[in-house]
Amino acid sequence: MNDSGDRLAGEGRIRCASLPESLKVAGIVLVPLMMQGVLQRRPWAVSLLARLDVDRWGNRVLRRLRRRHGGSSVLVNLLGRRMVVLLSPGDVHRVLEGSPQPFTLDNREKHASLSQFEPHGVLISTGPVREARRAYNEEILDTAHPVHRLGETIGAVVREEAGVLLGNARAAGGVVTWPLFAESFWRTVRRVVLGDAARDDVEVTGELSRLRADANWSYLRRPRPRVREAMMRRIRTYVGQGQAGCLAALVAATPAGPDVDPVGQMTQWLFAFDGAGTASFRLMALLATHPEQERRADADRTGQLDYLRACVLDCLRLWPTTLVVLRDGTEPIRWGTVTVPAGTAFAAPSSFLHRDEELLPYAHRFAPEIWLDGTADDNWSLIPFSGGPGVCPGRNLVLLVTSVLLAELRREHRFTLRSRPALTPQRPLPYMLNHGAIRLGLAPR
């Protein structure tokens, strides 16, 4: 086998895929991605594609494509839409660090979807307006700080709801299922973002879920302004209440410029927590089946949250909740010997990059240590929260909530995996894991 330098000899170049290659990328990589639902997962599709192990086939296609083109990323043409599929960490680095210019986050497909429920969101904003909205998001979410200024209050909310979840699980025969976990997690999220009064307001997150399901169809589904306005009225009500200790209170108290639309930013915060819940539940299954990591998570109470943060990050590496990171070129871009026209899409397929067995010796195993020992630092194959100037501004808040939740659930209880597939350190982990089918047994320590 060649070394990584030989395998990526074409890094920094773009080759044009043939028509058969483009059709294979579309059929085996992109169609399954869209079937799952980019913004709202379709349970039936996730279940089916996990059984078929579709990501394994998609990764094989992209790996062979990279080899065939000398290690370079490839330009595919799909029904007149040009897309560069980024297949090397160096190329991912160039695009993500080059955002928002000349690689805008306001990708055409992303805009068509997100505009249906967050038309003023920072992810589809450009120019000075984007800068103002990004700065506002970072201020409210405390992007630069590992622990949010409301960390103590948020921690208390997370621990309280974890206790309720454990009580409900005991009442259900000592079994934690995805519906039980998701119900509890969304109660936590509503309290963190909107305040205690929103704890049981399933309508506000239900309306968001319906809008996201429609947005999965991008151009093919008309927006539903009445549903969005009903959701926004609810969110504005909670901001108006200004209950202390939640993000809504910070929004109410923080001045914003005329183009920011502070309340309009909050739908993205709710949306972003969805993947955190999925990752947390998958991680519970991983820790239940990986004794070494389980012991480490329980051994050092002083460093427990740091280790659990690393566990969450590696779970997001193994099974990304952002299936593809998208940018569009705003101008013609010279790339090696090729000039890529303005308007071309650039796609970083995270499920391939995170499991690139030719570059990552830990590709198919649970390896939280890489997020602690420097291995993951500056590795542009690993983008669980995107990267560069467009990195998720809520990264630290999400990691705080999930690590505190997992620490509290494990404080006096152990979990066992009672569903398939079996997860074990002795075998490569599956490319896909249907979180909806996970069943965890609960027992006191």
TrEMBL record:
InterPro entries: Cyt_P450, Cyt_P450_sf, Cytochrome_P450_monoxygenase. SUPFAM superfamilies: Cytochrome P450 (SSF48264). GO terms for molecular function: heme binding; iron ion binding; monooxygenase activity; oxidoreductase activity, acting on paired donors, with incorporation or reduction of molecular oxygen. Pfam families: p450. Belongs to the cytochrome P450 family. This is Cytochrome P450.
